[in-house]
Amino acid sequence: MRADKGKTSLEKTLIDEEAHRAGFCKVRAARRTELAEDYIELIDDLLTHRGEARQVDIAARLGVTQPTVAKMLRRLAEEGLLESRRYRGVFLTEAGRTMARESRRRHAVVERFLIALGVSSDTARQDAEGIEHHVSGETLAAMRRFADERG
């Protein structure tokens, strides 16, 4: 008698417990990193284009309150990604600048991949914003190869 006889299609495709746990752990870690990377990228953009990154500007760009920004900036400072200077805004550490570069690089690869699939530039840019934080190195490399072959 087959072990899956009488099971629904969902039960037949249910992954094992360890694989399931590993997948959820990866997603939770990516979600935590995603928010930090979004803040770091924005701060880097503001510093590059305006010469300063102030709490009020960050809040306006992200559509959140200043207390929300203040809490995240404290967390990022504790993680060694930025420094706050009284009356001068925030500045990225070398680790913060590295994070911004890496996040942008992943975003560019995902965006090029989506465009190579035939997705419009605007949609590819928007979709890449979420995907870039969750994609593995292996998948990113495959996306890069695909986009390079089609580009």
Automatic annotation (TrEMBL):
Keywords: Activator, Cytoplasm, DNA-binding, Manganese, Repressor, Transcription, Transcription regulation
Highest taxon of source: Bacteria
Domain HTH dtxR-type: 32-93
Record has Nucleotidyltransferase as a keyword: no
UniProt keyword annotation of Transcription present: yes
Matching SMART domains: HTH_DTXR
Classification via SUPFAM superfamilies: Winged helix' DNA-binding domain (SSF46785)
UniProt main location, coarse: cytoplasm
Record-level GO cellular component terms: cytoplasm
GO molecular function (one): DNA binding
Pfam families: Fe_dep_repr_C, Fe_dep_repress
Cell compartments where the protein resides: Cytoplasm
Function according to Swiss-Prot or TrEMBL: In the presence of manganese, represses expression of mntH and mntS. Up-regulates expression of mntP.
The family this protein is said to belong to: Belongs to the DtxR/MntR family.
Assembly description: Homodimer.
Name assigned to this protein: Transcriptional regulator MntR
